[in-house]
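Q: I'm building a small set of examples for a reading group on sequence design. Run inverse folding on the following structure and report the sequence directly after it, with nothing in between.
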């Protein structure tokens, strides 16, 4: 038997707690209502009838789900795949239209927010004060600074600390009706620069970004470092970005070429400018 991928069928099958299609193991309450294995450890009582949940498995429903054709739960975000029940879980975990965990973790009471892709920019603007920069045909620049101190104190306002990493708040630009923003972090004496698109891997593959580095007071044509790298999807977490192709500079490389100011409390303030140029990738084949 194959069940058609209708919204009515999926509504009948869904777990009443997370409202997702339940995957094995599926459990029952004492009056016959179901709960998926993911939600079972989170509650003792059924939200529909207040009866206790049991360890009794609903094997019939598990077989029905396994044999059903089910629309991806992120269809409203743009995924049009219809899958067999036994393929559903693996797809949901990797779906490019799935929810995004905020890259800024617990900053500003974010609590590792899990967001729909369509809500992500609004979250960054409202919670993390992400600013939009003007650009001219994909060209824009941003001035960065880092206090290189002898004693650890509060660094610049544009800096935050996540698990001992220094992270700059991003800047946002619109180009080709897409939303891009910079992601920059400093870890173990290495700076990491990348440009992300709020979109899927397929969206990101349409663009590269050229970055060239200069002192803020130098003329427009001067640069001490110039590199072109792929744009990265916002779906990639920080660890995945570090393993992707992006721009890396050691602190020594940057310090030898950027503007350096002495600080009264000791140490130095490093100031440099990155010019970004979003490039449309050339079609292959």
């Amino acid at each position: 038997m194959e069940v058609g991928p209708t919204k009515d069928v999926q509504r009948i099958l869904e777990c009443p707690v997370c409202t997702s299609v339940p995957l094995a193991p599926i459990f029952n309450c004492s009056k016959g209502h179901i709960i998926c294995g993911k939600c079972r450890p989170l509650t003792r009582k059924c939200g529909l009838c207040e009866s206790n949940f049991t360890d009794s498995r609903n094997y019939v429903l598990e077989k029905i789900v396994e044999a059903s054709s089910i629309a991806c739960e992120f269809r409203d975000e743009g995924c049009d795949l219809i899958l067999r029940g036994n393929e559903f879980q693996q797809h949901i975990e990797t779906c490019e239209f799935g929810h995004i965990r905020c890259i800024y973790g617990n900053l500003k009471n974010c609590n590792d927010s899990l967001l729909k892709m369509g809500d992500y920019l609004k979250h960054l603007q409202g919670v993390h004060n992400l600013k939009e920069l003007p650009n001219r045909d994909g060209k824009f620049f941003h001035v960065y600074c880092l206090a290189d101190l002898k004693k650890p104190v509060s660094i610049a306002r544009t800096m935050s600390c996540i698990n001992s990493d220094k992270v700059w708040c991003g800047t946002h630009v619109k180009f080709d009706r897409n939303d891009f923003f910079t992601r920059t972090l400093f870890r173990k004496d290495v700076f990491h620069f990348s440009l992300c698109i709020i979109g899927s891997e397929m969206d990101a593959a349409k663009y590269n970004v050229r970055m060239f580095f200069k002192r803020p007071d130098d003329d427009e044509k001067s640069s001490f470092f110039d590199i072109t790298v792929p744009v990265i999807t916002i779906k990639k977490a920080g660890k995945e970005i570090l393993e992707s192709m992006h721009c890396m500079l050691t602190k020594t490389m940057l310090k030898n070429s950027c503007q350096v100011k002495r600080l009264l409390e000791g140490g130095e303030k490093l100031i440099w400018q990155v010019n970004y140029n979003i490039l449309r990738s050339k079609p292959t084949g």
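The first strand starts at residue 26 and ends at 29.
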